[in-house]
Amino acid sequence: MVDVSIIFVSYNTAEMTKKAIDLVKQSKHQLNLKIFVVDNASRDGSAEMIAQTFPDVTLITNAINVGFGRANNQVLPQYRGRYVLLLNTDAFVEADTIQKTVAFMDSHPTTGILGVKLLGRDGVLQPSCRYFPTPFNIFLNRTGLFKLFPSTQLVDDMAWDHQSVRDCDWVPGCYYLIRKEAIDQVGLFDQRYFLYYEEVDHCYATKQAGWQVTYFPDAPVVHIGGESAKIDHSISSVSRQVSALQIESELLYFRKNLGLLSVCLHVLLTIIAEAILAVKQLLKTPGQLRQVLNFKGLGLFLKLTYLSRAGSRVLR
């Protein structure tokens, strides 16, 4: 009986992938683990390294980069076990991380998804226990007007000590432990998301099905973050590409889960936010109107809203 099927999605992170797998193997204790790696057409020899170094790992290679959610979904026909753990190649577990999180899930049968405390390389706390985005809380966070609406729950609330177990709306996908029964009920990721918002959408569906999403602080994970994008110059050298992926996924999430009116509100508030930010900047640097108006950013947002038919059409 497999306890946990662990899925890595590899994309140009050969050295970190090796380290991440080694740490998982060292932390298995009495658990029976099955490790899968889905390589998204890496150009740094990741697939060859995995095949040679870890012959017991099930390797799936893609001819093209199919995205994060789709790559994870490729393992579904093969996975076994009581739990599935999605683990980033730049997320490094401690010796008892997996054992502690599985034990918590075993003793809390209503938890469908579990996330952990995420720390940067420097030990700084990263957002680990998050709340669903809405057009309004995104607007407040972007403009800095959240201080005027203290009762509004922002996506990230970093003010509390993060030392206690608590239920939340969603947890990041870099360490994402899912109960098999929850997958059987709601599936894994919506394949329309290429990158970003997959886990937000999945947690939304899981909570709608009656499961809890829980933050567990007693098994921290070091998460480097963004390494694939740094290597892939088509993304890292042009922030426009990253912005496009985020915009597309955000529109899809709002349209799917909150409806067309929420997309319309999001568009309106985005335009207002750009105007507010331009006015703020203009007050700091009078006479530089052309420099403070973010025509490119707003233009990209409106273009993608149109091309995606307000989030109802997939562009990738």
CATH superfamily of the largest domain: Spore Coat Polysaccharide Biosynthesis Protein SpsA, Chain A
Q: Largest sheet, if any? A: 9 strands, mixed
Structural class: alpha/beta
Number of structural domains: 2
DSSP strand count: 9
Overall spatial form:
globular
CATH class of the largest domain: Alpha Beta
Helical content, roughly? 40-55%
Separation, N- and C-terminal Cα atoms? 38 Å
**Average pLDDT, to the nearest integer?**
92
Order of helices and strands: EHEHEHEEHEHEEHHEHHHHHH
Enter the CATH topology name of the largest domain. Answer: Spore Coat Polysaccharide Biosynthesis Protein SpsA, Chain A
Cα radius of gyration in angstroms: 20 Å
Poorly predicted regions are 233-238
Portion in strands: 15-25%
Please tag this protein with its features.
316 residues, 9 strands
Commentary on this structure:
This protein has 316 residues and is an alpha/beta fold. The chain folds into two domains: 4-130 and 168-230, Spore Coat Polysaccharide Biosynthesis Protein SpsA, Chain A; 238-307, no CATH class. It contains 13 helices and nine strands. The protein has helices at residues 14-26, 46-53, 68-73, 97-107, 135-143, 180-186, 198-208, 227-231, 233-236, 239-257, 260-284, 289-292, 295-307; strands spanning 4-10, 33-40, 58-62, 83-87, 91-92, 111-119, 166-167, 175-179, 212-223. Strands 1, 2, 3, 4, 5, 6, 7, 8 and 9 form a nine-stranded mixed β-sheet that branches. Strand 1, helix 1 and strand 2 form a beta-alpha-beta unit. Helix 5 packs parallel to helix 11, helix 10 runs antiparallel to helix 11 (260-284) and helix 10 crosses helix 13 (295-307). The longest helix has 25 residues, at 260-284. The radius of gyration is 20 Å and the shape is globular. The chain starts with a strand and ends in a 9-residue tail after the last helix. 36% of the residues are buried.
